[in-house]
Amino acid sequence: MKLKHTLSAVLLTAAGLVAPLAGAPAAQADTLICDQYGSTTIGGKYVVMNNRWGSSATQCINVTGSGFRIQTQQGSTSGGAPLSYPAVYVGCHYANCSPGTNLPRQLSRIGSAPSSISYTYAGGTFDASYDIWMDPTAKTNGVNQMELMIWFNRVGGVQPVGGRVGTTSIGGRSWEVWQGNNGGNDVVSYVAQSAISSWSFNVLDFVNDVDARTRVDRSWYLTSIQAGFEPWSGGVGLAVNSFSASVS
Question: Does residue 176 carry a catalytic annotation?
Answer without folding.
Answer: no
